[in-house]
């Protein structure tokens, strides 16, 4: 079984997709997919599908969706497969669970690569960190579960994966800056800071990249825009870390040189 959530939903068995076209069964399958190997109770499934407005007899409706999914799973398995559909999409006292021996889970592979990349970054192996984190980020096929309606339970999982993506992205750019690739990352960072106007780490990385390209005035302008955003939106000043970086740019601090530590020093 292959399970992918880093883009449109993918759940396939031996190359055959079992993702339904109907919105509610697809949403149910998505929640089971992000929790593959673990049971999801019926209450959580009900809240995901209908939030605070469930239909009459929601458990029965969930069971109907499960039967639809099992039919698709049975077709994908074929008559000769050692597993039955009820074993793949199982029912227990705790709820329903998606189970298959040794599933290939896209999100797990992403997190494994990210973990290895961040450990390499912490250990000073910037080439390895950039490569591993780049590979992890390339696994994203688009917005998370782009073709699935998102309810409260899925939203929690998506926030967790988005945070892991942000960590991988910041780590890869940090490694690239350490490797002298400041020119290459400026365009990417400009787009990211426009998308996330309150993300201080991204702004700090952009300030550093611009400074190292001899564009100090632009680096200072990025700080000005960040400060305007944080004071207007949050009512606070930028963190002391970013303010320290700002002062270092103003004074052309030697620590900002390429041979010196990157943003982590500030």
UniProtKB/TrEMBL annotation:
Residue ranges flagged as DNA-binding region: 1-100
Limits of the OmpR/PhoB-type domain: 1-100
SMART domains: BTAD, Trans_reg_C
InterPro entries documented for this protein: AfsR-DnrI-RedD_regulator (IPR051677), BTAD (IPR005158), OmpR/PhoB-type_DNA-bd (IPR001867), Sig_transdc_resp-reg_C-effctor (IPR016032), TPR-like_helical_dom_sf (IPR011990), WH-like_DNA-bd_sf (IPR036388)
Protein name: AfsR/SARP family transcriptional regulator
CDD domains: BTAD
Species, as recorded: Streptomyces niveus (Streptomyces spheroides)
Family: Belongs to the AfsR/DnrI/RedD regulatory family.
Keywords assigned: DNA-binding, Transcription, Transcription regulation, Two-component regulatory system
Pfam families: BTAD (PF03704), Trans_reg_C (PF00486)
